[in-house]
Amino acid sequence: MNSVMHEQNLYREIITPVPDGVTRPLWSVMIPTYNCANYLRETLAGILAQDLGPEVMQIEVVDDHSTQDDPAAIVEELGRGRVSFYRQPENVGAIKNFNTCLQRSRGHLVHLLHGDDCVRDGFYWKMQRAFDEKAEIGAAFCRHIFIDGNSHWLFLSDLEQSESGILSNWLERIAVMNLLQPPSIVVRRDVYEKLGGFDSRICCCAEDWEMWVRIAADYPVWYDVEPLALYRFHSASLTGRCARTGQNVRDLCKIIEIIQPYLPAPIAKDLSRKSRENWALYAIKDITPQMFAVGDLSAVTTQIQEALRCSCSLNIIKELTPLVLQLGKLWLKKTVNTAARG
Q1: Distance between CA 24 and CA 56 in Å, rounded?
Q2: What is the reported pLDDT for 4?
Q3: Which of 143, 259, 325, 327 has a CA positioned 20 to 30 A from the CA of residue 224?
């Protein structure tokens, strides 16, 4: 167990404590961006509407050397000196940029809010109250709303429990399926200092999930029933790009391997098996319909292949049978049409 944890620590950046003598606000709202300046106005507006002042809240955009837009100009326009801006000297990738956000944070509570996501009025007050009521919690999160590229509401995340409070059996639940999204969660900075940064082995999809399981293995976690965070899903996002290549499922399988040592030994294998089946079903039932909708048959085929590598349970085979038949008909139709045009 210790050798496994040591190996995993090699892939986690050490988050250094804030030096003595540095003035520390309660909050650090850290906003990683990369080519998403068209959404950044909405993100910043939601934060600034709840601004508690520079003595209480650090607000900083950390840009991963964007090449298609100018987030610095948006920060200057909306922030008017209130929001600080840091630009990576070169593109370092999402994980390194997230860890840079953690390193640059000075607050006791860290909210890592991606530059295309948002929070609603009351988010910071509600999260702060959770830490005030239960000082032992390592993190607090709320229900979230999925939105599209035009900020239209799509659907709500499932309700994890009927009332706000510390979650029961949270490790066993979060180990099977990622049940939250980054804009909804706040973490104590000293938790990151103890557990390390985001794991560099995850390059494309659900890079946050491993972190939430890691935290759940060491700390109680608070849940607020009110939907106060907005998670944007759109085809241009990192999640969308990964789905087209199948890297999303490969990353999920890698995370399942990584988190198994965090789990209680008697149930670790069973939880991992359930997780593989759940993520394979996610690829089949959630991702492939989106790829069918845009006519990307190659992406559908890739998702099916990766789902089978993830799990070959009877449930997966049953779900796949009609999907494979539909895919075969569409490929045949496409082949016939191509031959006719030739």
Answers
A1: 8
A2: 45
A3: 259
Give dist(CA 235, CA 203) in Å, integer: 18
What sign results for the dihedral spanned by CA atoms 324, 330, 334, 340?
Answer: positive
Mean pLDDT in consecutive groups of 10 residues from the start of the chain, 342 residues: 55 96 97 96 97 97 97 96 98 96 98 98 98 98 96 96 97 97 98 97 84 98 98 66 85 95 96 96 87 82 91 92 81 70 65
**201 vs 253: CA distance, rounded Å:** 12
End-to-end CA distance of the chain: 60
Residue 16 — φ and ψ, nearest 5°? -80, 145
Question: How much is the pLDDT for 186?
Answer: 98
Residues sharing a CB contact under 8 Å with residue 243, sequence separation 6 or more, in sequence order: 205, 287, 290, 291, 299, 303
Measured distance CA(189)–CA(112) in Å, rounded: 11
pLDDT value of residue 109: 98
CA distances, 126 to each of 64, 119, 151 (Å): 30, 12, 23
Longest CA span, the chain: 75
Question: Which of 93-115 are b and which e, b meaning 16 or more Cβ less than 10 Å from the residue's Cβ?
Answer: ebbbbbbbbbbebbbebbbbbbb
In order of 11, 204, 267, the CA distances from 201 in angstroms are 7, 9, 25
Position 219, amino acid: Y
Residues 238, 130: Cα–Cα separation, whole Å: 31
Q: What does residue 305 show for φ and ψ, rounded to 5 degrees?
A: -60, -45
pTM of the model: 0.90
